Amino acid sequence: MELGGKAAALVLEDADLTLAATGCVHGSYMHKGQTCFSTERVIVNAAVVDKFLPILKKTAADFPVLGAVSNTGPENTLRLVQDALKKGAKLIYGEARLIKPGQLHPLVLSEVTPEIP
Predict the structure, then answer these.
(1) What is the value of pTM for the model shown?
(2) Which of 51, 54, 56 shows the shortest CA–CA distance to 39?
(3) I want to staple 99 with a disulfide (CB 3.0 to 4.6 A). Which of 12, 44, 74, 103 is the partner?
């Protein structure tokens, strides 16, 4: 089944922020980002964003780093991340670099606009 797209998670004002962060990180990282339905963006209600980001950062930091099936995916992702940073996105967790070929450090970006792919 092809379910491709830009899967989003929504974090609403009344959300359990720890549970939401866990769901977002697992949805993004669990299958090494290599499924057509992994979480690619998180949209957070402005009322809770300042509380949510530190929880998301810690949750991402606690998730094990996994290698990709091939080297090209992480390399392509790194190029997109570097472009996003040049266009104004903020890196709030991780390092925009490969740990080793085929293995990208887990990352969390904020302030990503619709103009940034």
Answers:
(1) 0.77
(2) 56
(3) 103
Active site residues: 2
Q: Which domains are present in the chain?
A: 8-110 (3.40.309.10)
**How is residue 51 written in tokens?**
């509380």
Residue scoring higher pLDDT (85 or 28)? 85
Angle between helices 49-62 and 17-29 (to 10 degrees): 50
Tokens of 61: 């930091």
